[in-house]
Amino acid sequence: MEKYQNENWREWHSGTTFRGGRERDLEDYEGYLGFKREDLNGKTVLDIGSGESELFSRQLKESGINAQVVSLNPDLISDSYRQEIKKINDWQKKAVAGIGQELPFKNKSFDNVLALYSVAVFSSPSINPEAAEHWMNEIVRVLKPGGEARIGGLLADKKEEIFNGPYKNLIKMLQSRRITVEVEKVKSKDLDLPPRSKSWIDESGEEHNEIEKWPEELWDARIIIKKPAK
């Protein structure tokens, strides 16, 4: 991936959260980040890059999970974005303006931090290593002792590509601080993907249709960070 020009570690890219209603829902969070909603019951949760209507926090509440969710939306820093988001009927008006590189929260504030297709995409170490170092340190800072962060989606054919690729130095930095780092591949069964069909026409002009199976593991991966209890 090419590095953006004129970039500094505080920069975020337009379109990080304003998806025109195409937000990741609760099931997407569970599948891509690898947890069950019940795990968040009674927890304080930070959702980095929540989207314009904070769909995840709303659906979590509707499912009966009692979690205190704080939604972080970097686009709320922009005056023009704030004017646009007011037009969205289902906007909950509960998101906090801020960027992953400078989280506006006190130390040890959250039991869980979730970042789905936010920092790992728009400020990944392959795009902006300095920004990635900042948001990784910030995530650790705001985690409570014993807390856990889950970050996705990371493109990788194998887990080793994360440990030995652009995230290598970040992982070493975390491990030097006694922070446990795990990498998991996303499995297609966890996403409940619908069947996909393949169609073609043979030499005689006859049309054929075939149901294709998804591979067991997708190109997506996630990093799981566990902060020591003491």
Give a short summary of the structure.
24% of the residues lie in helices and 27% in strands. By secondary structure, it is of the alpha/beta class. It has one domain (26-226): Vaccinia Virus protein VP39 (Rossmann fold, 3-Layer(aba) Sandwich), CATH 3.40.50.150.
Explained architecture:
- This protein is α/β, with parallel strands linked by helices and 230 residues long.
- It is built from seven helices and nine strands, in the order αβαβαββααβααββββ.
- A seven-stranded mixed sheet has the order 3-2-1-4-5-9-6. Strands 7-8 form a two-stranded antiparallel ribbon.
- The longest helix is centred in the middle third of the chain and has 14 residues, at 129-142.
- Helix 2 links the parallel strand 1 and strand 2.
Characteristics:
7-stranded mixed beta sheet, 230 residues, 24% helix, Rossmann fold, alpha/beta, two-stranded antiparallel ribbon
Structural class determined from secondary elements: alpha/beta
Fourth-level CATH superfamily: Vaccinia Virus protein VP39
Q: Sketch the major β-sheet.
A: 7 strands, mixed
The first-level CATH class name: Alpha Beta
Number of domains: 1
- Low-confidence blocks of residues: 1-6
Q: How much strand?
A: 25-35%
Give the proportion of residues in helices. Answer: 10-25%
Please tell me the CATH architecture by its name. Answer: 3-Layer(aba) Sandwich
The chain-level mean pLDDT equals 84
Query: How many beta-strand segments?
Result: 9
Count of helices?
7
CATH topology (fold) name: Rossmann fold
